[in-house]
Amino acid sequence: MEGGNELNKNGKIYVVGIGPGDKKHMTFKAVEAIEKSDIVIGYKKYIELIEDMIDSKKIVSSQMKKEVERCEKTLEYAEDGKVVALVSSGDAGVYGMAGIMIEVLLKKNSTVDIEVIPGVSAANASAACVGAPIMHDFATISLSDLLTDWSLIEKRIHCAGEGDFVITIYNPRSKKRQEQIVISREILLNYKSKSTPVAIVRNAKREDEEIVLTDLEHMLDHNIDMFTTLIIGNSKSYIKGGKMVTPRGYRI
Amino acid sequence: MEGGNELNKNGKIYVVGIGPGDKKHMTFKAVEAIEKSDIVIGYKKYIELIEDMIDSKKIVSSQMKKEVERCEKTLEYAEDGKVVALVSSGDAGVYGMAGIMIEVLLKKNSTVDIEVIPGVSAANASAACVGAPIMHDFATISLSDLLTDWSLIEKRIHCAGEGDFVITIYNPRSKKRQEQIVISREILLNYKSKSTPVAIVRNAKREDEEIVLTDLEHMLDHNIDMFTTLIIGNSKSYIKGGKMVTPRGYRI
């Protein structure tokens, strides 16, 4: 990529899911996109995870909660002929930057080329840390009510409980959101037994990974924060030999 | 890895998710595990996708529907001191080999070391192909009733519909299972409007990838088979400019 003389001609946006954090869990395609890019944009905590693979001159890092602004900036660079990698942790298409970026593009009626590069999501990474808990039908629910009415989140928890789904919970708790996980557990106890296995995975596949295998009765006795993903089993899930497993139904 | 003189001592099992198919979407960790292994085992269609990166002497390929046997074989090699990579498409922990392998290990009371290496799942890969349809809470449901009672699958479809989840559907149809997707659509029409966006993604991220963007009313007019993943939107999902997006709720 050279310069940006012909507006819009060579610009491109890669929305790159970098996986759970450890570079080993990035895909070749994700690394290739970052290498090909003139500019790499992302929330600074995620940029830090991969900054040793990027020429520092290319990096534009951003604060949290500036997601739309970050996408607008990305589009500006791409419209100016630059190849830009917008990085997102996990899979960019799961509560990540892919949707916001496409919505910004559509709003501005931009025809700039965009490619979403999938990554290993937090649910998949956390599951691998503890065994095979999402081997059967599962529901993924974020407890963050910043952008979603809490009543809708509650309804989804009811439905996921009633359907005996394995449930992966994103954003279970933050400094300001303490009660959502408490209420969610209460709701689930209407459908799931107290002994339902629960995995609490903090910083999955990073250096400071922490794993707790517990159950619905005792899950709140453990540290749950914004770096945590929870996996709550279905009625067939079990914990044995330090692993959490949800059987698919094979005769073993 | 040298020999297997000390039983159980050096053997190890990697359960490796190889992603959607194109090697570019494998993680570095997945490739490293395959390279480190003395033996690579998998269903032959998946082995074919990666066989040019493996010394052919190491390969043990297997027929479909021999999943338990394949895991027993894997364990035998590992108990004999070998490092074995058991490969699975997508993410090994989502309807893949990870759960079966761990269950076989537990049944045999084996203490052999096992590591599940997460990959890009079919849901994440398919979503990336069409835009950002799983940006909000989603449910993943397999329509295969080989191992699961159809009544439970139906119930889950009802619950996912009622909860206004985005729904990713695995195994929507095979030669022998033709009606499940028809019934599923009927169920969903109780909860979702006919104009709900639907993405039909066949061979996601492979050379022969095929994408159809349609809606719940017209989805059955298109080719749906065992290589297809379906993504059915929630009430906020839309299709525009050739992309399917589910808004997270940001003000764009």
From TrEMBL, chains A, B:
GO terms for biological process: cobalamin biosynthetic process; methylation. PANTHER family: COBALT-FACTOR III C(17)-METHYLTRANSFERASE-RELATED. Keywords: Cobalamin biosynthesis, Methyltransferase, S-adenosyl-L-methionine, Transferase. This is Precorrin-3B C(17)-methyltransferase. InterPro entries: 4pyrrol_Mease (IPR000878), 4pyrrol_Methylase_sf (IPR035996), 4pyrrole_Mease_sub1 (IPR014777), 4pyrrole_Mease_sub2 (IPR014776), Cbl_synth_CobJ/CibH_dom (IPR006363), Precorrin_MeTrfase (IPR051810). Residues 12-218 form the Tetrapyrrole methylase domain. Gene3D superfamilies: Cobalt-precorrin-4 Transmethylase, Domain 1, Methyltransferase, Cobalt-precorrin-4 Transmethylase, Domain 2. The keyword Cytoplasm does not apply. GO terms for molecular function: precorrin-3B C17-methyltransferase activity. It comes from the Bacteria. Pathway: Cofactor biosynthesis; adenosylcobalamin biosynthesis. Its EC number is 2.1.1.131. It is an enzyme of class 2 (transferase). The keyword Transmembrane does not apply.
